[in-house]
Write a structure and sequence with these properties.
Elements: E1 28-35, E2 38-45, E3 53-56, H1 69-73, E4 79-83, H2 99-112, E5 119-123, H3 125-136, E6 142-146, H4 157-168, H5 173-186, H6 188-200, H7 203-206, E7 213-219, H8 227-236, E8 240-245, H9 252-255, H10 257-269, E9 281-283, H11 300-319, H12 322-343, H13 345-364
Parallel strand pairs: 3-4, 3-5, 5-6, 6-7, 7-8, 8-9
Antiparallel strand pairs: 1-2, 2-4
């Protein structure tokens, strides 16, 4: 029977050393991990922290889907976001890879980069990949599944497709832009080849073999990963925590990046109780409204820099120039960080005032 944790408040401050947002959250390094004729492109931010994170995106899309989650996780450790063969301009072998073959490539990244006990995070089809990996790698102690697929009741392409469109209606505009751009780069031919591999992979058979403490997160409006399916995922896992984010859809880690990062870090810090009972889906009580316009206040210069970086990123992908790609990703991240800081300037001042008051109270012994 799956183990669960008690319903701890997500307001509690994490005990992990938190470096805060700094230049390491925007400086991107890009490298390749090869296995035979294939390679994985790895975009990395940060070099220090408690534990590394490995982020695996879903079908057709790129590591850019984690553009907001990665900086938030980087406050606690280095983050490695992956682009798998066939996606984001990474060459594919011509015939579709099985989910297990994708999982073996993720294992190669962990091994070649010498990552010790990474927190492995998968989104959508990425949940199948990391589950397959964790089921065969007992050394992976912490797993995060965001929007797990495929619900066995949705194994029809038409049913799954209609559910995806329902969820997409609730996605932020930025996610829709990222998706369209990624699908264009991926191409219809490769997407159609990989799709049957995703639809027929039985994640429900692999879940009971996962020894890692597993966090499962869904968005309230995620029709692709309905609550009933997430509850079943929790029961199938030997050790699980289940959370639902209000107002979010399938790509919950974008508009609610800070909340998802907090759940990931607290999950990594708090081992599951072996005596726990059947897991229940906890609702995140103090989530933001998910309106990304509230999180960013870009100037014209920020917008121009972000657009220019995006165009340069596409050109670098076409040329296979990883150095130029890293520079473009860094410039885009810096433009986003500038807009983020401007939108939250008042919040930072309030936080500073609160810390000063707390320090003064500590000094006076009150």
């Amino acid at each position: 029977m799956a183990r669960s944790t008690d319903d701890r408040s997500t307001r509690r401050r994490s005990s992990a050393p938190r470096r805060g947002r700094d230049e390491s959250s925007t400086r991107v390094a890009v490298q390749r991990v090869h296995r035979g004729d294939l390679y994985v492109r790895v975009s990395t931010i940060g070099t220090t922290g408690e534990r590394p994170f490995v982020l695996v995106p879903g079908i057709g899309v790129s590591s850019d889907y984690f553009e907001r989650l990665a900086p938030n996780l980087n406050e606690f450790g280095p983050v490695h976001a992956l682009d798998l063969p066939g996606f984001a301009g990474v060459p594919h072998p011509g015939s579709a890879l099985e989910i297990r073959q994708f999982a073996d490539l993720v294992a190669a990244v962990i091994d070649d980069l010498g990552l010790v006990d990474p927190v492995v995070v998968g989104h959508s089809m990425g949940t199948q990949i990391v589950t397959d990996l964790a089921a065969r790698r007992p050394d992976i102690s912490t797993l995060v599944l965001i929007g797990p697929v495929v619900d066995p009741t949705l194994r029809s392409v038409w049913r799954a497709g209609s559910r995806f469109l329902r969820a997409a209606w609730h996605e932020p505009g930025r996610v829709k832009v990222l998706a369209v751009r990624a699908y264009l780069i991926c191409g219809v031919h490769w997407f159609v080849q990989v799709l049957p591999k995703m639809m027929t992979y039985r994640i429900e058979d692999a879940l009971p073999h996962v020894q890692a403490d597993t966090l499962v997160i869904r968005g309230e409006h995620d029709a692709v990963a309905p609550r009933s399916w997430v509850e079943r995922v929790g029961r199938l896992l030997p050790a699980s925590r289940l959370w639902e984010m209000p107002g979010a859809a399938h790509s919950v880690m974008h508009a609610h990046a800070e909340e998802v990062a907090r759940l990931c870090v607290e999950h990594a810090e708090q081992p599951l109780d072996p005596a726990g009972g059947t897991p229940v889906v906890h609702r995140y009580g103090d989530a933001g409204n998910g309106n990304e316009r509230d999180d960013f206040d870009p100037t014209l210069a920020d917008s121009a820099a972000a657009l220019g970086a995006t165009l340069r990123e596409g050109a670098a992908i076409l040329r296979g120039d990883d150095e130029a790609l890293a520079a473009a990703k860094t410039d885009h991240a810096e433009a986003m960080e500038s807009a983020f800081r401007r939108a939250h300037r008042d919040d930072e001042g309030d936080a500073g005032d609160s810390d000063a008051i707390a320090d003064a109270e500590d000094d006076t012994g009150r």
